[in-house]
Amino acid sequence: xxxxxxxxxxxxxxxxxxxxxxxxxxxxxxxxxxxxxxxxxxxxxxxxxxxxxxxxxxxxxxxxxxxxxxxxxxxxxxxxxxxxxxxxxxxxxxxxxxxxxxxxxxxxxxxxxxxxxxxxxxxxxxxxxxxxxxxxxxxxxxxxxxxxxxxxxxxxxxxxxxxxxxxxxxxxxxxxxxxxxxxxxxxxxxxxxxxxxxxxxxxxxxxxxxxxxxxxxxxxxxxxxxxxxxxxxxxxxxxxxxxxxxxxxxxxxxxxxxxxxxxxxxxxxxxxxxxxxxxxxxxxxxxxxxxxxxxxxxxxxxxxxxxxxxxxxxxxxxxxxxxxxxxxxxxxxxxxxxxxxxxxxxxxxxxxxxxxxxxxxxxxxxxxxxxxxxxxxxxxxxxxxxxxxxxxxxxxxxxxxxxxxxxxxxxxxxxxxxxxxxxxxxxxxxxxxxxxxxxxxxxxxxxxxxxxxxxxxxxxxxxxxxxxxxxxxxxxxxxxxxxxxxxxxxxxxxxxxxxxxxxxxxxxxxxxx
Length: 513
Known about the structure:
Elements: H1 3-14, E1 23-25, E2 28-33, E3 40-41, H2 45-56, H3 58-65, H4 79-91, H5 100-103, H6 107-113, H7 129-139, H8 142-150, H9 154-164, E4 169-178, E5 181-182, E6 191-193, E7 198-201, E8 204-210, E9 222-227, H10 239-253, E10 254-261, H11 268-276, E11 280-285, H12 289-295, E12 311-320, E13 329-337, E14 349-355, H13 364-372, H14 374-387, H15 396-424, H16 441-449, E15 453-458, E16 461-466, H17 471-482
Parallel strand pairs: 4-10, 10-11
Antiparallel strand pairs: 1-2, 3-15, 4-8, 5-7, 6-7, 8-9, 11-14, 12-13, 13-14, 15-16
């Protein structure tokens, strides 16, 4: 028997390999494939996620607030471990509960999730899909659901305090918008939406960023509130309650809070509410007959050849008020004469912005530039969708709990993206913008988090051998994390030992077709 055959036989007998034969490729018989599920991980980035949240005390803080009715004497998976596993799975792109059965045997994922001491953490399987399902059911209770919603901004706040100090930002910008999530089934609350021509949910999400230009370092940036709504919800449905929650959270991060919204939120009730709270806003105003008549002289193309790229002018238009507004708000006319597919339109286009910024504090062009940055927020929504979200559960509240967990996972990834960009390009900015490096969320996941490694044991230690290509990223990232100065916080006590798994639990990967 050859050495390779002896090695393969030993692996099979030890249970570390689930395949009785090797894969062999016809194009080159020297290339063979074997399986070592207990020693190889494709999700080593879970260790980075654990180091990040553990240094900031995020999961322990949330888990300590959640109500857990289980008898702790018989609990094998503590609340912090279950929550950590669900968040890390989302952050790595595993959006379905069935993925838990695969991750339960991944050595790096197990090491990152367990809150136990010693090297035995790599041997004990994690929670199965039914256990994760029960976690979502537990979180979907009214009290726990609100605790999770109130905790969305916790990663932003802790990251800001650890790396930027206790001082608040001078200006915090909150982008609010609704969007659609297509459903495939008979989920409660999913309704046919004529605009999308599909059965959808219409969640409402709020995103915080310092200064709102997305050009300074992305410290304290992420989703701070979210609400799942039925598919037939109006654009501004439940916006008032969301704004109230957002103001409380945003003022923990910034001295002045301003909102940036599209025309769906330009109703009098929403704007009056923001104005009465003492916050600022810039919102696109739906056109109406009165404003269109007043604007008629402005969108006129001057004589001569127009500029090749067109132009866009912001004009201080008028102080306008209708009967339902608390006060006359400032209206800015934006005239846009830009080519579409290389050709100018028949006449210049125009639209209106409404703002409660004073003329002295922000000029018309500054208001327009500020509003234009809202497009980056829409990119963030797209990135979050790209992580994968699967709202296919049997109750509305369970789907909302899943939605909030996915936003919380995005915020963890956002911390790592911010630190990765700063580690790779430490030049001060402006004038250098972090987005120049091109680190979208997909690239962070595929290059840094979805890193492969081989587990080696020695001296009661667990050694994860990374590939040379990803090691420099990890080194630069961990060097930055080590420089954090988190406020000392009480950590969850580490549990010693394990309660044996139930007899019917699979201790090795069991594929279900």
